[in-house]
Design brief:
This protein is mostly helical. It has one domain. It has 9 helices and 2 strands; from the N terminus they run H-H-H-H-E-H-H-E-H-H-H.
Length: 274
């Protein structure tokens, strides 16, 4: 393939474009909410809600672009770079701006620093992943080393959604619980560069089979999440975060059951990922 004219695969990159659109829309909603936050708190709260949903939507598009690329054997250097550029907007800029606008604006200097630390850690992680992938050192991709930035943004967005839902019906503000967000953002910045291993679930494909009881359990969880969309996403992202701490003590048999690993254990070919 001519490196000056790389191939652009349609479907995976359309999903990446959807990711980028969601990140742009989330940023736009946050800015619009900031402009009217003091004059019209009800409308600002609605805009912040929309921004949260756009960030969560970007997470879905991020999952789909990788699945479609691997399904068709269409993983490419162009797609990897495009995906990282979209990720820094959707999972770096948008969450950092949202937490700054909701919480950290009361402390301008410290607020800028906390938001920027998260943003730069996310950017460095994405750049490191691209460098490792370009040199062919990304392993088999069954596990991420460190917490993935889409999951970090999803956790911030889902917890913000929960707090807006929990208190927003009364006073349209998160209240004192908003102070959970800055330390969480700093903690996730550290976790993105930790040595903890997280499953990528890339072994779960369209051909993955499950027993009827386990399939029914997955459907039940999805249905329960849809019914309790205000707080269940936060629970799922928290479980994923905590699983990284528990994973070294989980038996290989249970790890294969949870992660759908096929063949050798994922840790044998650990990859540095998003």
């Amino acid at each position: 393939m001519n490196e000056h004219n790389p191939k652009i695969y349609l479907l995976p990159n359309l999903m990446t474009a959807g990711n980028l659109f969601c990140g742009f829309a989330a940023t736009l909603k946050i800015v619009q909410g900031a402009l009217i936050q003091w004059s019209s708190p009800d409308e600002a709260a609605t805009l912040f809600h929309a921004a949260v949903w756009f960030i969560l939507g970007a997470c879905i598009f991020d999952v789909l672009d990788g699945r479609l690329a691997r399904l068709g054997g269409q993983d490419s250097a162009f797609g990897r770079e495009f995906d990282s550029l979209a990720d820094i907007v959707s999972f770096g800029v948008a969450p950092a701006l949202m937490v700054y606008r909701i919480v950290l604006i009361d402390f301008p200097r410290l607020g800028w620093l906390v938001a920027f630390v998260y943003l730069v850690c996310g950017a460095l992680r994405l750049a490191r992943y691209n460098c490792v992938s370009a040199t062919g050192g990304a392993g088999d991709g069954k596990a991420f080393t460190g917490f993935p930035i889409p999951a970090a943004a999803g956790l911030i967005a889902s917890i913000t959604l929960f707090m807006l839902w929990w208190l927003g019906e009364r006073d349209h503000e998160i209240g004192r619980w908003k102070w959970v967000l800055p330390p969480l953002m700093l903690f996730l910045s550290i976790m993105m560069f930790s040595r903890l291993s997280y499953p990528s679930f890339k072994a779960v494909t369209w051909r993955t089979t499950r027993s009827l009881p386990r399939f029914a359990a997955i459907i039940l969880i999805m249905f329960f999440t849809a019914l309790n969309y205000e707080w269940m996403p936060a629970v799922l992202f928290l479980v994923y975060l905590l699983y990284g701490f528990l994973r070294p003590w989980v038996s290989k048999r249970w790890r294969r059951e949870i992660e759908e690993e096929i063949g050798e254990e994922g840790e044998d070919g650990e990859a540095v990922e998003l």
